[in-house]
Design goal:
The complex is a heterodimer of chains A (386) and B (220). Chain A has 386 residues and is of the alpha+beta class. Chain A has helices spanning 8-20, 23-61, 85-90, 131-135, 156-162, 198-204, 223-234, 247-290, 292-300, 305-341, 350-377, 380-384; strands at 65-70, 95-103, 108-109, 123-127, 139-142, 151-154, 167-170, 173-181, 193-197, 213-218, 242-245. In chain A, strands 1, 2, 3, 4, 5, 6, 7, 8, 9, 10 and 11 form an 11-stranded mixed β-sheet that branches. In chain A, strand 7 (167-170) and strand 8 (173-181) form a beta hairpin. Chain A is elongated, with a radius of gyration of 34 Å. Chain B is of the alpha/beta class and 220 residues long. In chain B, the strands form 2 sheets. In chain B, strands 6-7-8-3-9-10 form a 6-stranded mixed β-sheet, sandwiched between helices. In chain B, 50% of the residues are buried. In chain B, 34% of the residues lie in helices and 25% in strands. Classes of the chains: A alpha+beta (386), B alpha/beta (220). Chain A binds chain B through residues 1-7, 9-10, 14, 17, 20-21, 293-294, 296-307, 379-381, 384, 386, and chain B through 49, 52, 54-55, 67, 72, 74-76, 78-83, 85, 87, 89, 91, 93, 95-98, 106-107, 109-115, 154. Bound molecules: adenosine-5'-triphosphate and magnesium ion (MG). The site of magnesium ion (MG) has 3 residues of chain B, from helix 1. The site of magnesium ion has 3 residues of chain B, from helix 1.
């Protein structure tokens, strides 16, 4: 005589009964798993969304912008880039464009009544006519500076600090504000700057004409090659006094910093998951203790040890799967809300979803196994004696 | 065909020195209705558990429906219980929150019968025990006597060779108790072998055969 197999549909129903007979307890213990899975899904989702956003932005901005700035001389003084460095760089084969800004030492004031020295941390930069097209700058409003006349364009931060002024006061003269820039992600130093025309700076502000930052775009495939020759090209006599950097790398580096943070949060999520798993195990142990009579009855009805074991494992699996599904959903929603407020795309990688559900299956099986084995070991007579 | 129950020299000793059942010989033929009587602690439940294959004897042979229990594995015993043995307990052991049909149908869960068929048979069994109008009632909506009838329906739904009842009237007043005994009698008349433990002498004497027990032994 062989015992009949328990159908899968019956097994699921059995597991469901067990949970439904104590719904509050089931919900509470599934909640632990749900929180752990939600935390992990959200952490992975948010970091993936932020990365997707950064990738999108980098793709739009281009990764072929290089900047050249003067470093320090071997005596520790500030170095100077030669005036002709821009035209030299422009002559490098794969370079598509090269342009510059130059620091002007005059201070910018909102009105002529502000005491000298209170400049509000704004830099005054002389800008080449083709600056915007090279750095990818866009005017929020107005027009670009006139190279010859006393006009300025404000960086985004500078505009916020100065307010909506028609003109600014520089070196005893009113300069008309012709436009305001959007933030420039690849050249954030422009955001807090007031830009004047290169010629106007020389005419009205005794600007020395030295470029202090050279911006250059090259053919994508040749960026690294260009990068290696930029310093000797910009300053052939002392290439060591030249600093070359790639602004898109700085943006990407922020991503690496995000990764450490993500790992930390993932660890926290894993701890929450572990605690959730212990909660499920605890619930199952209590359940087995409370349901001795049911176990005895089922054995008397013909359940094998294996079938009793399977029933409790199924119950535990269902419980943690319930938590896992809720957690994955919650994590997705949290990611979506957060990404939407940041205007990021919502990206939750499939492996995070699959991993979340997979983890709950493993947790459910492990948490349920010991109580299930105990339930199956119970002698029928002992179970029935209450 | 041999007897449905054959105990030969059956002893059950518990660790700690208690011998609950002591070299018992007992034969019950198919179709019998037997009352097991005796004082508390005389080994009635222990013997019923041995007959029901919920426990194995320390010594002796137990043959149920032709199967020697000693030769069967735990899995095979489970199958034997699922198909050939029905149990009724003093405490009913119904699942709270599930209606009568579901409770009875779940008694067939381990017989390999499909769900629809289980429900159909459960309804038939409930009609048979006189609860045709209580199919969707849950245990808390039923009287004690009705609950015990649901438990009996669960025990007989699979058409077992033998029905084992351990003080089925123990938790009932005399009127419901008499009703349950009448039901057991009807089931027996329809062909089921019934063994019932009872403390009630009136009930015991009204049944065709009594097996008196004392100190783990069956009195001749
Ligand atoms: N698991 C066990 N371990 C040790 N001793 C046990 C165990 N189960 C029963 N006993 C002992 O075996 C003896 C017979 O018990 P049993 O339950 O069979 O009696 P009973 O005739 O059914 O009594 P009652 O009428 O009170 O139900 C008792 O002395 C009891 O203490
Ligand atoms: Mg007893």
């Amino acid at each position: 005589m062989k015992p009949a197999r328990l159908r899968l549909s019956d097994l699921l129903r059995l597991g469901g009964y067990g949970l439904r007979s104590r719904p509050l307890r089931a919900v509470l213990s599934a909640l632990g798993i749900a929180i752990g899975i939600a935390a992990m899904t959200a952490v992975v989702g948010i970091s993936s969304s932020s990365r997707a956003d950064l990738d999108q932005r980098l793709a739009a901005l281009g990764t072929n912008l290089l900047t050249v700035t003067p470093g320090q001389t071997m005596f520790g003084e500030d170095a100077v880039l030669p005036d002709e460095s821009v035209s030299m760089i422009r002559r490098i084969g794969p370079v598509q464009s090269a342009t510059a800004t130059g620091k002007v030492s005059s201070a910018v004031y909102r009105t002529d009544r502000v005491p000298a020295g209170e400049t509000g941390g704004l830099a005054l930069l002389a800008a080449s006519p083709d600056l915007l097209s090279t750095v990818g700058g866009v005017l929020t409003r107005g027009t670009w500076i006139n190279q010859k006349y006393p006009t300025v364009v404000l960086g985004a931060t500078a505009a916020r600090r100065l307010g909506n002024v028609p003109s600014v006061y520089i070196d005893g003269r009113w300069w008309t504000v012709t436009g305001v820039l959007d933030p420039v992600p690849l050249a954030p130093e422009l955001d807090s700057a007031v830009l004047v025309g290169w010629e106007a700076a020389a005419t009205y502000l005794s600007f020395d004409g030295h470029p202090t930052t050279v911006y250059t775009r090259s053919v994508d495939a040749q960026v690294e090659a260009v990068r290696s020759v930029l310093a000797p090209t910009a300053n052939p006599s002392s290439p060591d006094e030249v600093k070359v950097s790639k602004p898109s790398d700085a943006l990407a580096a922020r991503r690496a910093a995000d990764d450490t943070f993500t790992a930390l949060l993932l660890g926290l999520g894993a701890v929450a998951l572990l605690v959730g798993g212990i909660g499920v195990a605890n619930t199952m142990v209590i359940s087995v203790l409370e349901r001795r009579a049911e176990i005895g009855l089922r054995r008397s009805l013909g359940a094998t040890r294996g079938q009793v074991r399977t029933q409790f494992v199924a119950e535990s699996l269902l419980l943690s799967l319930l938590g896992g599904a809720a957690g994955v959903l919650l994590g997705y929603v949290v990611t979506g809300l957060y990404a939407t407020t940041r205007t990021w795309p919502t990206v939750v990688p499939w492996w995070a979803l699959a991993g979340g559900v997979g983890a709950t299956v493993v947790i459910g099986a492990i948490a349920g196994l010991y109580p299930a084995i105990r339930a199956a070991r119970l002698a029928p007579t002992e179970a029935l004696s209450g | 065909m041999s007897a449905v129950i054959e105990l030969a020299g059956v002893t059950k000793a518990y660790p700690g020195g208690v011998t609950a059942v002591r070299s018992v010989d007992l034969t019950v033929e198919y179709g019998e209705l037997v009352a097991i009587v005796g004082p508390s602690g005389s080994g009635k439940s222990t013997m019923l558990h041995l007959i029901g294959t919920l426990d194995r004897p320390t010594h002796g042979t137990v043959r149920i429906d032709g199967h020697d229990v000693a030769t069967l594995s735990d899995r095979q015993l489970s199958a034997l219980r699922a198909r050939r043995i029905g149990f009724v307990f003093q405490q009913f052991h119904l699942a709270p929150g599930r209606d009568a049909v579901t409770n009875v149908a779940d008694g067939l869960l381990y017989t390999g019968v499909a769900r629809k068929e289980r429900e159909w048979r459960a309804e038939a069994a409930l009609v048979r025990v006189g609860l045709g109008d209580r199919l969707t009632h849950k245990p808390h909506q039923l009287s004690g006597g009705e609950r015990q009838r649901v438990a009996i329906a669960r025990a007989v739904a699979g058409d077992p060779a033998v029905l084992l009842a351990d003080e089925p009237t123990g938790n009932l007043d005399s009127v419901s108790g008499a009703g349950v005994v009448t039901l057991l009698r009807e089931l027996n008349e329809a062909g089921t072998t019934v063994l019932v433990i009872t403390h009630d002498h009136e009930i015991a004497e009204s049944l065709p055969r009594q097996v008196p027990m004392r100190d783990g032994q069956v009195m001749a």
